[in-house]
Amino acid sequence: MKLVKLSALLLSAVLLQGCAGLFIAGAATTASVVTDNRTVKEQLSDKNLSLEATGLANKAPYQYNMRVNAVTYDGKVLLMGQAKDAQMNQEFEKKIKDMKGVNTVYNQIRVRPLLTFTQINNDSWITTKVKSSLLAKSELNGIKISVFTEAQEVFLVGFVTEEQGNIAADIARNIKGVKGVIKAFEYGQGGSVEQ
Fold this sequence. Notes:
Keywords: Signal. There is one protein chain. By secondary structure, the protein is of the alpha/beta class. The chain is built from five helices and six strands, in the order H-H-E-E-H-E-H-E-E-H-E. The strands form two sheets. A three-stranded mixed β-sheet has the order 1-2-3. A three-stranded mixed β-sheet has the order 4-5-6. A hairpin with a 2-residue loop joins strand 1 (66-73) and strand 2.
């Protein structure tokens, strides 16, 4: 009998923990959707474009010759990463431009050797430090800025005012290990990528 009660208690704890995880994930997704000025349909379309671009980079002939991250906002695709040669980079960019739903491509893929595991870990650490510093800045409370780091270059993506974008870029520039900051913000109407 004690074994049954103990099993029931453990099972309840596991199930409740799972519910809390689902609740938190659901709340985070809802908050993301609510703070985004795009419709849910536009957000899904952009997410699918990003996944399609990243998936293409993981297929022949690009696989093992490129390392690409893609972020899409209103049909504008920001490509970040490395390509072993310029021709492959240009071919990849053209394929992305030809995808249905893509309005503009900002190609920030660098022609250079692909990052090592150590370099990728270093970039992850830089991203963590930048995100923490952005969260600590009161002028950026409630603003959703995505941070990506590739070869110590920090990419800032989000919907902000010009002042908020400048504050975020200044914060990122002053993080140890950052070699450059690229602002890929939407400022009301239109969008831009600045180095």
